[in-house]
Design goal:
alpha/beta; Rossmann fold; UDP-galactose 4-epimerase, domain 1; 5-stranded parallel sheet; two-stranded parallel ribbon; 10 helices
């Protein structure tokens, strides 16, 4: 297949972690393109005629839980508007979903054929968006990814970055040990996304680094890689954030289509790259 013209790709939500890691395409701000406005989406498409769409614009886990109506508008209606525009233009759409569509118990591993069972608002909106895109029957590639790390520290200082900083200074680290997921390096996600898109892959694909972990496992690995003397305090998610957003015990993803390097290897590359 002919590779996608990356300079002509529309990227919604381009200021997020994955969006900033994509060094290509058109990234209009929300003031220029509001995905919740179907007419605005159609007008932008007519003026700019993108070669494909990478749809990242969404409300995150915690904001979705605090404002379900806005989450439905952005994550579901906005996704439908973008999907409809892609179908009508006859171009591919990449939609980024999440392991949050699953609600597994300890030890549960989810592949592309596992039945979704979300336990929070964010997961429900992502599942609804997936379902609507599939009903449109366009050129849809739905990527579910895991606990993504490795973004710009200036804009996306997340758990991994906080642990690296504390481990380097020898500070104690507290992490939850009763939730499992798939740690995944953002650079690996983006590289695999381009490979899948250029190769004509469609449908649902899980894109995660190999392996599974709790936040404690991730912290322990960082401490070991940095030869840090930081003490690790293991707690439950409820102890860490009492009454917080519901999370599945297991959001572990595996794939029948994609095989990436182990998360520990990817993490080592990221830790070494941090100033």
């Amino acid at each position: 297949m002919t590779p996608i013209d990356r300079n002509r790709v529309l990227i919604t939500g381009g200021n997020g972690m994955i969006g900033r890691a994509i060094d290509a395409g058109m990234k209009p701000p929300r003031s220029e393109l509001d995905v919740c406005d179907r007419d605005a989406v159609a007008s932008w498409m007519e003026r700019n005629r993108p070669s494909a769409i990478i749809h990242l614009a969404s409300m995150d886990l915690h904001r979705s839980e605090s404002d379900p109506r806005a989450a439905m508008e952005t994550n579901v209606v906005g996704t439908y508007n973008v999907g409809l525009a892609a179908r009508d233009a006859g171009i591919p759409l990449v939609f980024f979903s999440s392991g949050a569509v699953f609600g597994g118990e300890r030890g549960t591993v989810h592949d592309e054929e596992s039945a979704p069972r979300p336990v929070n608002v964010y997961g429900n909106t992502k599942w609804l968006a997936e379902t609507m895109l599939q009903a449109l029957r366009g050129e849809m590639l739905i990527i579910r990814t895991g606990w993504v790390f490795g973004g710009s520290q200036a804009h996306h200082r997340k758990f991994v970055d906080i642990v690296i900083e504390k481990a380097r200074s020898g500070e104690p680290i507290t992490a939850a040990c009763d939730r499992w997921g798939s740690p995944t390096f953002v650079r690996d996600v983006v590289a695999e996304m381009w490979r899948l898109l250029d190769g004509g892959q469609r449908g649902i694909v899980h894109v995660v680094n190999e392996g599974q972990a709790t936040a404690c496992d991730i912290a322990r690995e960082i401490i070991a890689q940095l030869h840090s003397g930081s003490a690790l305090h293991e707690v439950t998610q409820e102890e860490l954030a009492p009454g917080g957003t519901p999370r599945a015990v297991s959001e572990i993803l595996v794939s029948k289509h994609v095989h990436l390097r182990p998360w520990q290897e990817a993490l080592r590359e990221y830790v070494a790259s941090r100033p």
